[in-house]
Amino acid sequence: xxxxxxxxxxxxxxxxxxxxxxxxxxxxxxxxxxxxxxxxxxxxxxxxxxxxxxxxxxxxxxxxxxxxxxxxxxxxxxxxxxxxxxxxxxxxxxxxxxx
Length: 99
What we know:
Strand order of the largest sheet: 1-2
Shape: elongated
Number of helices: 2
Distance between the termini: 94 Å
Radius of gyration: 31 Å
Largest sheet: 2 strands, antiparallel
């Protein structure tokens, strides 16, 4: 396999990770696979799928909320901009220091 992962500043081929020569965190890849199988047995695929879809919906709701917040800020900034030049009022300045 040509994939490689960074480990301790060096690159290690995927085969070494699979064989357990290089550990992921404090456990090897086989430990993580066993944990994954146990989680699948306890919760089942349907429950995990529901959790995944709920999490995806939450992320989508968060993104929509951020987008709405950005649009509100843009509208607020646009409403604070000065009036266009075609709606200016002409006035004459008077010299106040003149006696």
